[in-house]
Amino acid sequence: xxxxxVIGTAxxxxxxxxxxxxxxxxxxxxxxxxxxxxxSVPSNSFDVSQCxxxxxSACLNGVSxxxxxxxxxxxxxxxxxxPQGEQDKRDRRASLRPVLxxxxxxxxxxxxxxxxxGLWASGSRARFEGTVPVxxxxxxxxxxxxxxxxxxxxxxxxxxxxxxxxVDTRTFYxxxxxxxxxxxxxxxxxxLVSDAVSVDMTLGRGWGETTxxxxxxxxxxxxxxxxxxxxxxxxxxxxxxxNASRQIGPWGFGGRVGYLHARxxxxxxxxxxxxxxxxxxxxxxxxxxxxxxxDGSYGINRNWQLHGAAIYRRDTSRNEGRSGGGLPTxxxxxxxxxxxxxxxxxxxxxxxGRRFTMNLEYLNTAGRDRFKNESLSLIGRIDF
Length: 384
Hints:
With about 375 residues, the chain is mainly beta. It has helices at about 5-15, 20-25, 65-75, and strands at about 85, 95, 115-130, 135-150, 155-170, 175-190, 195-215, 225-250, 250-265, 270, 280, 285-300, 305-320, 340-350, 355-365, 370-384. Strands 3-4-5-6-7-8-9-12-13-14-15-16 form a twelve-stranded antiparallel beta barrel. Strands 1-2 form a two-stranded antiparallel sheet. It has a two-stranded antiparallel ribbon with strand order 10-11. A hairpin with a 4-residue loop joins strand 12 (about 285-300) and strand 13.
């Protein structure tokens, strides 16, 4: 970070001329050096690679939500798909069968024995970034979840989960960032058609709040004017999945096909703090995805199991929320138009007898243009 900027910011804050926080001063330091080079741009575009306190006129006079909201929703929906280690309902031996996909945010936990109730908890962190030249950003999502479910008559699993989510985004194109928090309540069910086939459903509702700050592009050089805004949001989601699996000795093989959909309604708001503050209308962001996946596992011994999966996803519908406004009219697309991606998953599962299980899983998203995502999750479950 430029030393003159740090000293100048401290002096201005002591004189009451600015209210830049430590977090905002990090945002205002400009884009990192490892961003991909920005090609020459036409006159109706913006070279945001030069956006900084020393060059505020290069910053995009646009709010962050119109760029980051769809990707944030995408990452939330594409949680790690967990091939669940579930005790077989007849002989209670470990078997591989996905119980629920992660459209619900890792609510699947680790299956349930025929005896009844189960309690589980999970924690996960995802790091993702967009590198579209006009609007590069990096973000992290941390989530903790708590759930309870019950297996009824050895056929029907019913459960509910509560998830707390925190999103931290750094938007280089406007020298700013976002902080968001959300709570999601999800109900889920899985019906065992046979020992090898199941049908799963999820239905969820979430509530969130987002605050954001950015550099006003009309700021005098070295004297940052911080534009701020905040908004509330409501989110709904659902999914329907069919799973199949087969166990051959220590090897397990499975597959799934399904569809998920989510919709987020963001309230309109008015920015404050500088002459370039914008009025943003209500925004709707939505994403529908069809997916097809295969997975496999190998039981090392009675306590440890390795597993992996490959999942193909295709966007069948999506709304980036551009109708809410918040970007200069000359700015074109801030999202690539590709619709396909593949998730690669590897994990390690521990069976601590019939009452306790744990699963550690890593996920990497590949194949999407100018978008990267990886996550790590840990789930623990105890049955009663």
